[in-house]
Amino acid sequence: MTEAAPEPAAADAETGDAALLKRFEDAAARMSRAREALAHVVFGQSEVIDLTLATLAAGGHGLLVGAPGLAKTLLVTSVAELLGLSAKRVQFTPDLMPGDILGSEVLEESADGKREFRFIAGPVFCQLLMADEINRASPRTQSALLQAMQERHVTVAGARHDLPAPFHVLATQNPIEQEGTYPLPEAQLDRFLMQINVGYPDLDSEKRMLAETTGTVAANINAVMAPEDLENAQALVREMPIGEQVIDLILKLVRAARPDESASARVRSMVAWGPGPRASQAFSLAARALALIEGRHAPSLDDVKRLAKPVLRHRMALNFAARSEGLDTDQFIDELLDGATES
């Protein structure tokens, strides 16, 4: 007796699942190759590499904070080459104007004497913008970049100009020198999916870096992805399932950091302002993106714990009472994490 043929709907579902799995495996393999290639260029920063790639795979923007000489610029330029993205770099200074980033309209006169305005696009019209030392720009320039980051378009002389897709900003910030800087407003900080702190490499990594970067042979970087591959990865991140336990931990952690009536007495006494709902969205997308670049089909509770500081540290602020105790934001996030995982 022959077996009955599968129902058309069931067969279509199996075909769709197989196609989705193939897309996932292809995207994960490409991300894995990008991670490996970056590790041969940026030494001793494996966590920074993972978080940066996760930021892009989640479709967000990243803020890299670290002392000079820690390869932040090299990381961004290498990421652009590996992912096949058109990239531009802007060195932010106090005299930088919005038009220097967005572009401007100029009045041109043709050979026949006719005059008309023509829009000249600024460096923001790329797929990966490196905003170097972003806190050195004036608030007016920072707010111009804010619209581009959030809306994916700019408005010049009343006309809308769409940015290329995908569009990402990787900004750097020097935490040491604060003279002549303009701290980013909370509204713009919240637009960054993650704040990635870049620390010093360990001894073995720095020794390897010395051996490989002070000779005559430079490391070659070849693209392992195209912009369409990154967009496919971003779509897969949003299609990826996320467990109820992971969602519960995200919400518990984010809501515990808000100094409202339901918060603990310690949070109310130490926190000036806490993260909004965008933090929960950032957690969800970043956790799934981390799972993708590591070849896992769904995020775990460990992903949320790993992302707690990068997602929350720029979305909350401690008050004077906390600072007088010598408590910094990362330490307080550790306290929140301990409380969320114990309860």
- SS class: alpha/beta
| Series of H and E elements | HHEHEHEEEHEEEHEHHHHEHHEHH
Cα gyration radius (Å) = 23 Å
The CATH homologous superfamily of the largest domain? P-loop containing nucleotide triphosphate hydrolases
Features:
single chain, 343 residues, alpha/beta, Rossmann fold, Helicase, Ruva Protein, domain 3, 2 domains, five-stranded parallel beta sheet, 14 helices, 49% helix, globular
Give an overview in words.
This protein is an alpha/beta fold. It folds into 2 domains: 17-232, Rossmann fold; 240-343, Helicase, Ruva Protein, domain 3 (Orthogonal Bundle), CATH 1.10.8.80. Helix content is 49%, strand content 15%. It has helices at residues 8-39, 46-57, 72-83, 98-102, 139-151, 186-189, 203-213, 227-239, 244-256, 265-270, 277-293, 301-312, 320-324, 329-342; strands spanning 62-65, 87-91, 103-109, 115-121, 128-132, 153-156, 159-162, 168-173, 194-197, 271-273, 317-318. The strands form 4 sheets. Strands 2-5-8-1-9 form a 5-stranded parallel β-sheet. It has a two-stranded antiparallel ribbon with strand order 3-4.
